[in-house]
Amino acid sequence: MLQRIVLAVFLASLALNAGAMIADASLACVPALLAGWYLADFASGLTHMLLDYRPTPAGARLDELYFYTGSRESADYLALKRRRMAAVSPFVRLLYDFKTHHPVPMALGRRPVWRLIGSTVLLAALPVSLALNVAVLAWPVPGWATALLLALILGGAFAQYFHGTLHRERVPAIIAAMRRLGLLMTPAAHQAHHDTLQRDFATNCGWSNPVINRLFAALRARGYLKDEGLVPGA
Ligand SMILES: [Zn+2]
Ligand SMILES: [Zn+2]
């Protein structure tokens, strides 16, 4: 029920912003939309890089889940997972999700849409979209500025969904069309990340990967983003 209300409010808020953009449409809206799409890709890459390498807190013992050798459908594993996850914060659960995505990438593709976008919509995309609603109602915000923020909000909200579609055999027609247009990256391009875990962290369109890769190299050269962070600790 909460999901439906949040989604309905989000859609209405997006529609209002899109209306404000169209009401002041100009040629400048086209590069602004692309710039917003780029910034969303950059945000997806930066978040992914930091969460992949940020160590889980000592004492959380999430290594026992990550390196579990028996069946992951066994009652023993499921009970252990419930206990360990109940003892950590939602942020640490998110850290675990990013790390465990590397050995079992296809699991992300099987997740329902709300599980992939829910927290991002609630914590970031919806508040920013509502703030933009207030701004366009209160001030004469130029159409190009609304366009940039709208593309950023949409790309940000759906970032983990887009990542999930890179790990699925079949994807909706709109995703396939956006890949053909270069607005979303292909599974082959994303495989470069999984092959090394040291590059191409952005998972929307991948336009920002050259910049993110340089940032990764610079941080590694300064001793940050150590390999130990890639797997959950004891
Ligand atoms: Zn990763
Ligand atoms: Zn992936």
Quick tags:
binds zinc ion, 234 residues
Structure, described:
The chain has helices at 2-23, 29-53, 63-66, 75-86, 90-101, 106-109, 113-138, 143-157, 159-165, 173-180, 187-196, 209-221. It is mainly α. Helix 1 (2-23) packs antiparallel against helix 8 and helix 2 runs parallel beside helix 12. The longest helix is centred in the middle third of the chain and has 26 residues, at 113-138. 30% of the residues are buried. The model has no long low-confidence stretch (mean pLDDT 96). The structure holds zinc ion (2 copies). Residues 48, 52, 102, 193, 197 line the site of one zinc ion (ZN).
What's a quick, concise take on this entry?
By secondary structure, the protein is mainly α. The protein has twelve helices and no strands.
